[in-house]
Write a structure and sequence with these properties.
By secondary structure, the protein is α+β, with helices and mostly antiparallel strands. It has one domain (about 5-75). About 20% of the residues lie in helices and about 25% in strands. It has helices at about 10-15, 35-45; strands at about 5-10, 30, 50-60, 70-75. The chain has a four-stranded mixed β-sheet. The termini are far apart. About 15% of the residues are buried.
């Protein structure tokens, strides 16, 4: 089975209890499948539902990284600020 690589964007660490100290320097997680990654996001969302939620976004076809998807945080206020 191929790995499903997910990169966590900066917004994840600004608005949630997650800290980048809990992850490797590259802020990547490797899952066995997209479904596994979605399950991880669902579990993390239980920790901070009043603030907003983490969302999993499939990488754009022109993305040259090896990430299959990105996790970003969307505030409950509906304001989404793209990560750099």
């Amino acid at each position: 089975m191929a790995d499903y690589i997910v990169e966590l964007k900066d917004s994840v660490f600004r608005e949630t209890p997650l800290t980048d100290a809990n992850f490797d320097e590259d802020r990547r997680l490797v899952f066995g499948s997209k479904a596994d990654a979605e399950g991880w996001v669902t579990e993390r969302n239980r920790e901070h539902t009043s603030r907003g939620q983490l969302t999993l976004h499939t990488a754009h076809p022109a993305d040259t990284s090896d990430a299959d998807a990105y996790v970003v945080f969307q505030s409950v206020k509906g304001v989404w600020v793209p990560d750099s």
